[in-house]
Design goal:
This protein is of the alpha/beta class. The chain folds into two domains: 89 residues, Translation factors (Elongation Factor Tu (Ef-tu), domain 3, Beta Barrel), CATH 2.40.30.10; 111 residues, 3-Layer(aba) Sandwich (Rossmann fold), CATH 3.40.50. Strand 4 and strand 5 form a beta hairpin. The relative contact order is 0.14.
């Protein structure tokens, strides 16, 4: 059992963070890797990327958005409750090297994943520019943490309620027009956002890394549920990812596959609410 020692509701839009005692995972996990948890004996396996680790205290912090029954159950847990199973670290360890100027682009709960990845790039001596976006101000997370980490941070909101009015791609376009010598773009967030970023960076031939979190079941490469089309080859996000060259990802196929169970997730969530 893995005890929850902290829980916070981070933003409008049901984004929640939980900090869990998991000393063995905290000692080994690296930025961008993920864990799979199971709330109870009958629960489904849920893959989630770790946003923070504290090796001294033996804890990991996970951010997630409530979208279905399992994430709703996870959100309902309180400090002092425990998660039955927690497996990790999983996924390929990212190689953080000194590249130059890196632009990190994040949206929604993906900002937490982006922050952890950028910590790795910062430790390697890179210069960081951050772009984070949300539909409105109340849905932004980790602005202060991103501002401390990055040499420059641009905040965008779709409705113009805070920061720069527009999309993250608008902010990226401005950097290009300023002739910022971008060596790498790292994008983490909703699939349509990452697709739009990659469409733009392909035009300017800027290498782009994306973090994918498709439907995943066993997280060992056995089930094939998390398969993604990367440059015409089938890869499994659990064992080959979760990070891929964004210009090689077939986002249209991935979005279609990820939407297959949207209706079932909503039905399951509504059923659990009514039952409760």
């Amino acid at each position: 059992m893995y005890s929850i020692i902290d829980r916070q509701e981070m933003a409008k839009g049901d984004i929640v963070s939980i900090t869990v005692e998991a000393p063995e995972i905290a000692a080994k996990i690296h930025p961008g890797q993920f864990v799979v948890l199971r709330i109870n004996e009958t629960g489904e396996r849920l893959p989630l990327t770790v946003a923070y680790k504290n090796r001294a205290h033996g804890t990991i912090t996970i951010f997630f958005q409530v979208v279905g029954k399992t994430t709703a159950m996870l959100s309902s847990l309180k400090i002092g409750d425990a998660i039955k199973d927690l497996v990790g670290p999983l996924g390929v360890r990212e190689k953080f090297e000194k590249i130059g100027i890196i632009v990190g682009i994040g949206g929604g709960s993906g900002i937490a994943v982006l922050h952890h990845l950028l910590e790795g790039y910062a430790e390697a001596g890179n210069n960081l520019i951050g772009i984070i976006g949300a539909r409105e101000k109340e849905m932004l997370i980790l602005e202060d943490e991103m501002r401390r980490l990055c040499q420059r941070l641009v905040v965008t909101t779709d409705d113009g309620s805070y920061g720069q009015h527009g999309l993250v791609t608008d902010a990226l376009q401005q950097l290009v027009e300023e002739q910022v010598a971008i060596d790498l773009v790292v994008a983490v967030g909703p699939l349509p956002m990452m697709r739009a970023v990659c469409k733009m960076t392909r035009i300017y031939q800027i290498h782009t890394l994306v973090s994918l979190n498709p439907i995943m079941i066993d997280a060992t490469g056995m089930c094939g549920g998390c398969r993604v089309n990367i440059g015409g080859d089938k890869k499994f996000a659990c064992v080959h990812g979760p990070h891929f060259d964004g210009h090689k990802v077939d986002f249209d196929e991935l979005i279609q596959r990820n939407n297959m169970y949207t209706r079932d997730e909503k039905t399951s969530l509504l059923s659990s609410i009514k039952a409760g």
